[in-house]
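Q: Hi! Curious about what Succinate dehydrogenase assembly factor 3 looks like structurally. Here's the sequence.
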Amino acid sequence: MRSSLLRLAESVSKAPLNLTEASSMLYPPLPLYRRLLRSHRNLPTVMRSMGDDYVKSEFRRHKEVTNPVFIMGFLSQWKVYLDQLPQTLNETYKGKRLDPTVLEKMSGEQLGQLYELMHAAKGVWKPVATEGEEENP
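A: Let's find out. The predicted structure is below.
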């Protein structure tokens, strides 16, 4: 049973999660949460709003988790995300494709959340129709 928990909490990178190494690189939950919200200040307003809402809901949803392996995986993945965000207003955030091995590891619920996020993101960037024009469905 323990080995399956470690496999589920593996990092999305190619190398497996090393708990001692990861704990030395990770921030505690509250400082990580604050850094994420601060780094979102460098994003465009719409992306910042969506990112802030997502970070807040995920941290709130996982507030009561007690499994240390899951917590390490959760914090390490948010740290990876933090490292990818632009550090200054002059930098632009460029997304990247999701690794296929990550998709294979996702549960049905996670895939559903990813699908909902994709549609929410498309709705944010949908061009606004001008008067007299109808939007295409």
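A: A fun detail: Residues 25-122 form one domain.
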